Amino acid sequence: MTDSPRAFLDELFNAAVAAAHPSTCLPPVLPPAPVSGRLILLAAGKAAGSMLEVAEHHYLDTLGVDPSRLVGIGVARHGYGRPTRQLEMVEAGHPVPDAAGLAGAQKALDLAASATADDLVLVLLSGGASANWIAPASGVELDDKRALTRALLRSGANITEINTVRKHLSRIKGGRLAALSQPAKVVTLAISDVPGDDPAVIGSGPTVPDPSTLAEAREVLTRYRIDPPASIAVALRDPANESPKPGDAAFANAEYHLISRPLDSFVATEKLARDRGVEPILLGDNLEGEARDVAAAQAAKALELKAAGKRAILLSGGELTVTMRGNGRGGPNQEFALALAEALGGASDIYAVAGDTDGTDGGGGDATDPAGAFVLPDTLARAREAGLDPAAFLANNDSTTFFERIGDLLNPGPTCTNVNDFRAVFIDV
C-alpha cells in the first residue's frame, strides 16, 4: 500500500484513464481496410485525436495501406487534438459548439456523402462528439444552438435528455451520418461516456437508429422550463427533422462496437485496490442525479463503514448533474467533492477523489480546466483557516475556487479519452 492516501487515489484515477485510452483498446478491434475503394475515417469527441492517431499508425505503418486510399477528419475538443500525418485534425468547442466544429462536421458530412459501395466508412466515436460535430438542421443558426446548449447545461437535464433534443436539431446526429454514408459499409467503434452505454446516446448516435422523437425533445424543454429561440421551436415541430428509427434501411449495412466502457475502467481500478490490500465496493458505473445528493449518500455510506472499522474504497461512475443556482466556477465532480467534504464534516481516515476521465470538469471549456478535486480529512479545517465558508461556495456553485484556494484540485490535463466520471471514497481505518 502506498504511504499517501492522496497518492493512492491519484494512482486509481490514472489507472481508470489508462484502461480507456485508445492506445490500449483500439488497435485490437480495427477492421481490415476494404479490398478496393477508400478507407474513410471520421472521428469525433474527446478521444477523436488519439483514436485518429492510433488508427492512422495502424493502417499506414502496421498494415501498409496505400496512403492514397486513406482519407478522413477528426474533430476533438480544443486542446485534445493529436498530431497526424495525413488525416485532418480539427479542434472545436465543447460543451458549447463553435464555428470550428461546424466546419469540421460539414467536412465529415461531405466525405460520408462521397462514399461508394467499395468504400468503408470507419466512425471513431467518443464522448463530446455531440458538441464537436455540430450540423444544425435547416433554418437553425449556430448561435441559436449555442444558446440552447447553455440553457440545457444549466437546467439539470441529464445527458440522455440533452441528446434527445440535440438529435432532432441536427443533420449528422440521430442516425443521419449512417444514412448519408450509403451505400458504403459503416463500422462504428465507440468509447462510451454515458450511463448504460446506450449507442443512441453516445455522441448523440450518429450511426444508429434513434428511438426518441420530436415530441420527446419538445417535452424535455417544457420539463426544464426552457424557452428556446424561435428557429429551434420551429425546427422541433417540423416532421422533416424526425430521426430515422429502428428498422430503417439506412442501417442495413452498419455495424456498431463498444470498445471501452466505464465498467472496464472500474475493473482495472478494482484490481489495483485489491493489489494494495483494500476492498473495493463498486456502487455502480452509471450513477446519475444531483452531484450534492449523491455526495450526501456516499458520505453516509463511508461513515457507516468507518464506524464498523471496515477498510474499503467506494467506487462509482456515471454522469452527475448540477442545477445552477449561483454564478461560480465548477463542474459535477468538483461539486460532488465539496458536498462530500461538508457531509463528512472533517471525519478522520476518509479520503476521496472525484474527477472526469477526460481531464476537465465543467468550467469554461478550456483544456486547462481541472478534472475534479480531492477531499482529505483536514479539507474543512484548512478551508476555515483560509477564511473560506464551504457552504457559501457550494450555494454559489463555486467549487473550483474553493479547491483552488486550498490546493486540492485534480489537474491531469487533457487525457484524450472519456469514460465519464470516476469517484473513489477511501476509508483508511
TrEMBL record:
<feature type="domain" description="MOFRL">
    <location>
        <begin position="313"/>
        <end position="421"/>
    </location>
</feature>
<dbReference type="Pfam" id="PF05161">
    <property type="entry name" value="MOFRL"/>
</dbReference>
<feature type="domain" description="MOFRL-associated">
    <location>
        <begin position="9"/>
        <end position="235"/>
    </location>
</feature>
<dbReference type="InterPro" id="IPR039760">
    <property type="entry name" value="MOFRL_protein"/>
</dbReference>
<dbReference type="InterPro" id="IPR025286">
    <property type="entry name" value="MOFRL_assoc_dom"/>
</dbReference>
<dbReference type="Pfam" id="PF13660">
    <property type="entry name" value="DUF4147"/>
</dbReference>
<dbReference type="InterPro" id="IPR038614">
    <property type="entry name" value="GK_N_sf"/>
</dbReference>
<keyword id="KW-0808">Transferase</keyword>
<dbReference type="InterPro" id="IPR007835">
    <property type="entry name" value="MOFRL"/>
</dbReference>
<dbReference type="GO" id="GO:0016301">
    <property type="term" value="F:kinase activity"/>
</dbReference>
<keyword id="KW-0418">Kinase</keyword>
<dbReference type="InterPro" id="IPR037035">
    <property type="entry name" value="GK-like_C_sf"/>
</dbReference>
<protein>
    <submittedName>
        <fullName>Glycerate kinase</fullName>
    </submittedName>
</protein>
